[in-house]
Design brief:
mainly alpha, 153 residues, 0% strand, 75% helix, globular
Length: 153
């Protein structure tokens, strides 16, 4: 049952990762296109797919380590081309370690999985709220120099 529950939580970890990437890129005026997010999602999926097939052949911990390295390498190597190495390795790589690897390992902590994920979520909320508290969101998302749509005739 825990494997089934773990599979259902995969979108939750991806959501947290995307949320943090969105906040960081917004704060730093980094433009990530939805296609970039698509490729990041496929790198997350690569983790789950590789893990699912590796556990039939090697220990779960070795499979987790290999799948983690592969997925993080996919994300970092891709984002270094899109944004640059510093953002790719520091912000994205760290976020992926927390929201993919640590989230996944939380399912090994019997009786503490929900608590561990809740604590990670609350810490994330606190950090994001503190980092963005002074942002004027309406100004940040205001369209600059937008061309008005033609009026219907």
């Amino acid at each position: 049952m825990s494997q089934f529950w773990g599979a259902l939580q995969a979108p939750v970890s991806l959501f947290f990762f995307f949320f943090l990437m969105f906040i960081i890129t917004t704060m730093r005026n980094i433009d990530l296109h939805p296609m970039n997010y698509f490729f990041l999602a496929t790198a997350f999926f690569a983790f789950h797919l590789l893990l699912a097939y590796l556990v039939d052949h090697i220990s779960i911990h070795a499979a987790m380590a290999i799948a983690s390295v592969v997925s993080v390498a996919l994300v970092v190597s891709y984002l270094r081309l899109v944004v640059g190495m510093r953002f790719a390795a520091l912000e994205a790589g760290t976020a992926q370690l927390i929201y993919l690897v640590l989230f996944s390992y939380a399912f090994f902590w019997k009786g503490y999985t929900g608590l561990a994920i809740t604590v990670i979520a609350i810490i994330t909320l606190f950090v994001v709220m503190q980092a963005t508290g002074r942002i004027r969101w309406s100004e940040r998302f205001a369209t600059r120099g937008a061309v008005p749509l033609p009026s219907p005739r």
